[in-house]
Amino acid sequence: MIDDERPVLDNHLHLDPDNHRGIDAVRDFVRVDGTHMLVVNKPSWHLGVEADAGEDFRPVFERTLEIVADASAELPGRAWPVLGVHPGLISRLVDERGYAPEEAREIMRGGIDVAAEYVESGEALALKSGRPHYAVDDDVWSASNAVMRRAFERGADLDCAVQLHAEGGEDLTEVTEWAEEAGLPAHRVVKHYAGGRLEGPIPSVIGEKDELERAAERGEPFLMETDYIDDPDRPGAVLGPKTVPRRVAWLLENGYDDAVRNAHVETPKRVYGIDTESTLERA
């Protein structure tokens, strides 16, 4: 059982507003003492949008804001939106829709610019970008890195965090060096779906016990996530919405109180500037 005064944040999950569990997943999270979540927009094509320009992403972002508002109404804390362009879109644009990598780059950078408008207005908390976690041609890789660098530039302009979807590994210092060159501090860069040891970005550690133990024992800033995808075609993919609260309870049972505070209070404040304690009002 988690203390009523303790925030529990899932740093990266998706909610489908129309086709799967949506708010029911939020209610599951609350039932096991979850309090806060960062909701990342689903890939644009999953919401029926085949983008040809940056403006085409706007309905994806608007729909995400709606489901986040609905989620906040259910949570004892609140939800925040993270908006951006899934890096896998470049393969869809190039391989399936016939765009040149340079054209795909411009479409995706346009999407980042539109997402940044929502951060600037205060409607979204952070940006999402990255690069493919699978092998691609050199020109696609170069275009993907250019999209990610645009996200760093906009994050620097707005003093907001950037969540990255990228390849695995334990050293992404080159990426945070690019962010710092753009004026975005390394602690504002978050690697989603990370292991417990990562150099460079702040790791958002997937809710597996061994990786969480590594992060807890390391003592560096980290976050916790499920990457719940809320996809009716892949019901068992990644982790369910109850996972982070259950892993918090497990960490507390094993004496990792400081690590829990690190992941759910201190690191969210450092990375995003959010206060998970003052925004918590349990009934």
Automatic annotation (TrEMBL):
One of its GO terms (molecular function) is hydrolase activity, acting on ester bonds. It comes from the Archaea. InterPro entries: Metal_Hydrolase (IPR032466), TatD-like (IPR001130), UCP004961 (IPR011589). Signal peptide: none annotated. Gene3D superfamilies: Metal-dependent hydrolases. This is TatD-related deoxyribonuclease. Pfam families: TatD_DNase (PF01026).
